[in-house]
Amino acid sequence: MVLAGHAGRMTSTAPLPESPAGPAASAVGLTKTYGRGPAAVHALRGVDVTFGRGAFTAIMGPSGSGKSTLLHLLAGLDTATSGQVLLGETDLTRLDDTALTLLRRERLGFVFQQFNLLPVLTAEQNIVLPTELGGRRGRGAGAPLDREWLGVLVDVLGLRERLAHRPSELSGGQQQRVAIARALVTKPELVLADEPTGNLDSRSGAEVLDFLRRSVRELGRTVVMVTHDAVAASYADRVVLLADGALAGEVTDPTPEAVTAALDALRTSLPMAGSAR
Amino acid sequence: MLRLTLRQARSTAGRLLLAGVAVAMGTGFVAAVLLTSALFTRTTTDSVAAQYRGADVVVRTNGTPLTDAEVADVAGAPSVAAADGRVDSGVQLVGASGTEYAGLRNTTTAPALAAADHDRLAAGELPSSSGQVALSAATAQRLGAGLGGSLSVRTYPVTTDLSGAATEPVDVPVTVVGLLSDDTGALFDSSGAVLATTADALAWSSGSYTDVSGAPLTGYSAVLVVTAPGASPQEARDAVADRLRTAGLQTQTGEWDPSQGWTGDAPPVDVLTTQQVVDSAVDSALGGTRVLTSVVLAFAAVALFVATTVITNTFSVLVAQRTHQLALLRCVGATKRQVQRSVLAEAAALGVVASSVGVLVGAGLSTVAAAVLAHLAPGVPVPTGVVLTPAAVVAPLVVGTGVTVVAALAPARAATRVSPLAALRPAAAPDLRTRTSRLRLASSLVLLLGGGVLLVGGVLLATGVFADAVNGATGTSDELAVWGVAAAVVGGMASFSGVLLGAVFLVPRAVGLVGRLVARGGGAPARLAALNAVRNPRRTASTTGALLIGTTLVALMVVGAATTSRTLAAALDRQYPVDVQVTSLGGPDGPEPLAPEVVRAATAVPGVRAWTPVLTASLTANRGTTPDPRSQTWLEAAAASRGQLASVLPDPAWVAALAPGTVVVPRDLATSLGVSDGDEVVAYPSTTQAQYDDQGTPTGWAGAAPQGHVLRVAVTDLGGYQALVLPGDLTAADPAATTSGLWVHLSADADPVAVADDVQTAVTDAGGTDASTSPVAVSGAAAERAGYERVIDTMLLVVVGLLAVAVLIALVGVANTLSLSVIERTRENAVLRALGLTRGQLRRMLALEGALVAGVGGLLGVVLGSLYGWAGAASLLGGAAAAGGSAIWTPELPWGRLALLLGVAVAAGLLASVLPARRAVRTPPVAALAEQ
Hints:
The structure holds 2 protein chains of 2 kinds. By secondary structure, chain A is of the alpha/beta class. Chain A contains 8 helices and 10 strands.
């Protein structure tokens, strides 16, 4: 367990042995301010962070620490006030809405707390949705569906028997597994998960986290997950701590106890600082 | 609670907006109709009342004029202060610059009645002695006579001479002593244009009434009565009636119904209060207006019905969205009733606001309509301004608010079913799916099938298919046709109700089917649009059903009109086979040939494709080979070569049998002649006189028996009553046959009315109507056909215009449903955006959803409307044709117009998605994802 200083000057993060090709994504001096003048809320204050390829990173922090904002900026769903967000070589802050949309479609995967499956589609239709958004023709037709890959995902996630079911006919855990399959189906460079276990019981939550970890270990994906649950964070290779919109340290090879301790340390050093957001 | 309700309504005003627009459109329609009708009623009442101003009771004859003695009787009745005879007639005025027929009335001597005449006097004075008249300024000007000028009154003395010789008109010189203002209701009160003294008026109007022998009767058409002080008009009326009865007249104190008949010498005399007279006059003057008003109100009812579906949808969605909030209210102690009332109060508030807007819009429309009418028909006094009768203002308000509240009843009931527990659960996506009941399906099927059978049966009955089987047993084919039409109407309405009731089963399936077809190859967005369109079957069904009503009715009208038009054209082709006929009418000495310059002029008109001069003769004919005065019939015949005739007739087959010695006889003429194909007839000049006995039965020939020319009959499908022969045969039958006709065939692309007009002008210019030559008439089927088509098209335009309101409201409903869906699916759309759906794709997805719902509504409407249109046209035209002896109707599908209707529906669906899509695209995905 290594506890970095909360000043968070992280100039480099050692890449993991499995991913020699440089970081999957990074933020450089990333700032996000909501509102103006005295009412301004500084959600992120110059965050520099790098997410290694083929790694499972958890982002933790108290409410209002800016972890969700960071995730949204990494996803190109929100625009930064200043700084850069790099996905591979691409600077997301320089892209217009359509380019960002196509980037999300082709290079990113999402897992939401609310699952957010489309109720009118079956599990299988939900999984393959990202590959079909481009239509058969048209601009940015996106990655063609890799049937073999789909088969692997379905088997790994244990969804074979559920493919024809509608989301309303699936349990929460099953829905989230469908959502994970949907996030992975285009073999995205980066999978972003926002509190993926927040709406699940602990057993289903453990399953989902296990799948996320397997997708990194066995399927070679890169996953960044926002969570407030120390146990969930312990599934990651590395935990990045945020407080009051700034990096507040990190824990590598985390255990639940280590994460909890780091969070406690954070709270004592920052007495309820981040409640503004 | 009420405050909370209103606050809630205000916070969701945007969501209520479109529902409000729908209500306002419906009530605006109702208000416009009622206000316009009120305007005309008021104007009519005013002008009728002005006619009897000053009188409290009116005695009116229904036959024999009232005499001076009877006027005296009336004046002598108790409760009567004064009575004066009223002449209400017409007279022909001859002035320096023209002749005009004007209403004639006498001046009055009773002071209470004279005020009305004095008030109308604009200049000069009222006539006080014989030979003086006062007339309306406009009439005077047209006749070229100013104040003090002279005119003549032309009368036609009636004689009892039955020889039929016309009597010479007598011109009586008169002086214009007064000019009348002609502002008060010249439209309805035509009888006040000329005022004369009673003596003159009686003299000039002599002959308006005659006795059974035709001898003229002189007298008054009415007696105006002023009641004595303290007596009511009813008392005076009854007293006058009593007095006249005593004098030997039959009277009645209500309106006389001519169908009741009467006993004695003459129908009874009406004794009525002025109010009764005004009421009945307004009734009869506005009878047509009332019918029109109720017809138009029926269209308004359709529009309002469509509006209810929009309201119900809106409130269902609002309640679903507020589940959490309603549950919270229940948690903190609100009763079910309070929750229900809050929804209904919100609906009532919406109804009041939207209906008020509607009434204002309606008042504006009615003012504009009156102004436009005044502009289009100058000279006709059209009332202007708005007459705000309580009924015309209150009725739309009540109806609009009532409709809104009624439409919100079901959603309000749904609100009461929200359990307080729902507040404690996390807000789930509102599930509006309701089970569709078996009962609904069953009743829908019963209505659909039963109505369908009735419709088909009615059509068959009306077209006379069963006529042979049941004729004589149940009545004539006329009666059968009427029953058939009635059955078809009831069946049509029942089956359409079945369709609407079953829309919840039918429409989502249809949308799903079309959606799958459209989605094929369109990728995920298209598929999602198709799936979203049927996501809530009931909502989709009611949205589409609303549109279905309008489009079905429009398609029905369009197809019905096209079929009617086509059938009429076919019938006219047969009846009047020649496009344009130029005919010399002949002089006093018999037929004369058409002048060559007339033929040249007529045939030189552009648009004339083929023409042939025809030889015509009026013949007498009978069956057999020898002329027989006892069985002779009139026979109009025309002759030209077969090729020439074929070139001007719509179907050359009609004259294929024409050969020397053959007469081509139209089927109807053959029936009336009593001949059939292959029979022989003998024809001879119609100038041959038969000799008659005392009973008028022909016994032999007045002179020498005619020679006669024997012809073999060939019956063809040609219509009309003119037989065709070759020129040689016609001259053989009647040596006096002349080339008095010119038959013209127009090119297919020519405007028949314009060409017929051009031919008329050319003929006139060529001297065809010059007094020195015999007069020439231009007639023909082309113009008549075009005239019918124009009438049908105009009616279609009006009806479609009236239906357009319902269609428009239905399209507002589509926009409403879409925008509510967008609000409901904010989160889902955000997820799609996060997963990589571009803004354009989201917009297109919603556009496709709108187009699907509207397009399927349009498509079903076109299909149903076409079927109903055919059925309607078949039963009506078939019935008429069957009664006329020839059962034909030609189904017609106006593809262009139907495609246009469908195109409008689809385009409107696309358009309806614009605003909802703007909202959907504007919402940033992050905000939507953060929303719980």
